[in-house]
UniProtKB/TrEMBL annotation:
Molecular-function GO term, any one: zinc ion binding
Pfam families assigned to the protein according to its UniProt record, in alphabetical order: ADH_N, ADH_zinc_N
GO biological process: alcohol metabolic process
Location of the Enoyl reductase (ER) domain: 21-358
UniProt-listed Enzyme Commission number(s): 1.1.1.2
Highest taxon of source: Eukaryota
Record keywords: Metal-binding, NADP, Oxidoreductase, Phosphoprotein, Zinc
Statement: the UniProt record of this protein carries the keyword Lipid metabolism: no
Family: Belongs to the zinc-containing alcohol dehydrogenase family.
Subunit: Homodimer.
Necessary cofactors: Zn(2+)
Protein name: alcohol dehydrogenase (NADP(+))
Length: 368
């Protein structure tokens, strides 16, 4: 298949109203081809909370037109002569939220990339959408028929995982996997996951797969309690329904991963759940910042407050293998690509249980 056999078409946000279900289907110009690139015929793309923040310019002005979606799985249809990883036409592959870094670039090789942490590249972190590559091309995401990506950020999907299951792991999955791993979650550790959404539900399952002693879900209501326990959680706190929840569970957790993206979250109460020397990892990204932090709990418990961004391609490969080995199955709902506008509105309303995955029924044919 030559590059002229397919067009790049997808759901485009044209202004902030796109986040209210007003994306429009249209054609766009992918990044100018480089021999390190691959083209992918998209079969599946998960819907991440970041897609909504970006569509509505919540983190700053978005570079419209913007096609979001960075949990992409599909089939390789074109491979550059300098592509990495032995990729071949026909391979089933995925792309997460990052699709370029300074690695291998002239003047590149920052400390982070040099140590295999491309996700922390301090020189060139190109997002899979709403980004600009070094060659000037824009990045367009996966609510689309085709995707072009630098091969370094394209990973093969293990045969044991279905494409629909693998897709949400590529951002939602790895974003919770990497902090759990980095902060030593395993036997002997108690873990809290705040917010049982797309990211949070992965957090619970990874913490169990990593053999944490105890995993506690901290959610606003008890509506998701039964699901959380089925995912493997050992305990559940409904902050909106239990008086004194923070006192009752004070100083019980070693590591917390917080997926909440609201500036009005009860942050100090969340922090009180940590033991002395405990670690709070913020991964949710509120559009208007975090609540104020009082100093004394930090001082007297030597608490660590930190953040974490997605994962490197090697983190993604490692996580996919953990999913295979430990039979981790995401809770997904599959939605046809044509219904993407409805899906993002339902996502905004908190309806997914627990991740929506868009699919192209007959890849290569417009759904309209
Ligand atoms: P999601 O599926 O909507 O999950 C977010 C969860 O947060 C909800 O399910 C809800 O859980 C909880 N929540 C929502 N509003 C809340 C509020 N006002 N107070 C307390 N809890 C609230 O979204 P997601 O896809 O998991 O993404 C979550 C956040 O992570 C987004 O901001 C996204 O941009 C960010 N993100 C960051 C990275 C990174 O690398 N750091 C990567 C991907 C995504 P309950 O119903 O259980 O309360
Ligand atoms: Zn994401
Ligand atoms: Zn770098």
């Amino acid at each position: 298949m030559s590059s002229s056999d397919y067009k790049f078409e997808g759901w485009l946000g044209l202004d902030p109203s796109a986040a209210q279900g007003k994306m429009q289907w249209g054609e766009y110009e992918p990044k100018p081809w480089e021999e390190t690139d691959v083209d992918i015929k998209i079969t599946h793309c998960g819907i991440c909370g970041s897609d909504l923040h970006t569509l509505r310019s919540g983190w700053g002005p978005t570079n419209y037109p913007c096609c979001v979606g960075h949990e992409i799985v599909g089939t390789v249809v074109r491979v550059g002569s300098k592509a990495e990883g032995g990729l071949k036409v026909g391979d089933r592959v995925g792309v997460g939220a990052q699709s370029d870094s300074c690695l291998g670039r002239k003047g590149g090789d920052c400390e982070a990339c040099a140590s295999g942490m491309e996700n922390y590249c301090q020189k060139l972190h190109v997002g899979t959408y709403n980004g600009v590559y070094l060659n000037g091309g824009k990045s367009y995401g996966g609510y689309a028929l085709y995707h072009r990506a630098p091969s370094h950020f394209v990973v093969k999907i293990p045969d044991a995982l279905s494409s629909a299951e693998a897709a949400p792991m590529l951002c939602g999955g790895v974003t919770t996997y990497t902090p759990l791993k980095h902060h030593g979650v395993g036997p002997g550790k108690t873990v809290g996951i705040i917010g049982l959404g797309g990211l949070g539900h992965f957090g619970v399952m990874w913490a169990k797969a990593l053999k944490a002693d105890k995993v506690v879900v901290i959610s606003r209501t008890s509506a998701k309690k039964e699901d959380a326990l089925k995912m493997g959680a050992d305990d559940f706190i409904a902050t909106g329904e239990e008086a004194d929840w923070a006192k009752k569970h004070a100083s019980t957790l070693d590591v917390i991963v917080c997926t909440v993206s609201s500036s009005s979250m009860p942050l100090m109460q969340y922090l009180s759940l940590l033991r002395f020397d405990g670690t709070f990892v913020q991964v949710g990204a509120p559009e208007d910042g975090l609540p104020t932090i009082q100093q004394f709990p930090l001082i007297f418990k030597r608490l660590n407050i930190t953040g974490s961004v997605i994962g490197s391609p090697s983190d993604i490969r490692e996580m996919l293998q953990l999913a295979v080995d430990q039979k981790v199955k995401p809770w997904i709902e599959e939605i046809p690509m044509k219904d993407a506008n409805r899906a993002i509105m339902d996502m905004d309303a908190g309806k997914p249980r627990y991740r929506y995955v868009l699919y192209n029924e007959k890849p290569g044919v417009s759904r309209l």
